[in-house]
Amino acid sequence: MPEDDRFPKALPAGDNQDIKQYVEQVIEIVSLWPGVTTGDGRFNSTMFSVGQREIGHVHPHQLGLVDISYPQLLREQLLVEGHTEKHHVVPNRATTFAIESEDDIKQAVFLLRLSYLHHASMLEQTSDTEEQVENIDLDVEAEIRQLKLSDELRAVLTQIINSE
After folding, report:
1. CA–CA–CA angle 82, 32, 131 (5° rounding)
2. 3-class DSSP state for residue 28?
3. 142-159 pLDDT per residue, tens
4. Whole-angstrom Cα distance, residue 158 to residue 164?
């Protein structure tokens, strides 16, 4: 099979096992959030959804890559602040964060939480019954206040949530 430059090179087997464990911890944490479901995604990924909206997915085999699409303003601010990288395949539309150590678990969960808050707030505002999720009981504004965000990132996220 030819090498694919879109993905990082494989690590030694021991490191891959560690990364697999880190990915499993992220999956366990995110799957416990109200209204979140997990499922099989493309390219052997685990997809996280709230309602019918994907909040992101993780590839356990590709160095624990967490791929998330954000609204453009939020994506750009996250990139500027160094929270994540441009997506490894579609750099103009999404982001990729590599879980390479145990310390990266917290950052991966943080990035997925931002996407979750965005999509959960959209679901709260929609009248489309197909998109309704059982009462998530989530105070999005309180959650945003609790996150350790820069003033700029907080402003962008609040603007996006309030405009939808």
Report:
1. 85
2. helix
3. 898 899 899 999 999 999
4. 10
In whole angstroms, give the CA distance from residue 153 to residue 9.
32
12-37 pLDDT, tens per residue? 434 578 888 999 999 999 999 999 99
pTM: 0.85
Helix 72-80 and helix 104-125, axial crossing angle in degrees, nearest 10: 160
Buried-state track 65-84, b at ≥16 Cβ within 10 A, e below 16: bbbbbbbeebbebbeeeebb
**Residue in the block written with tokens 């945003």:** 144
Burial degree of 60 (CB within 10 A; 0-12, 13-18, 19+):
buried
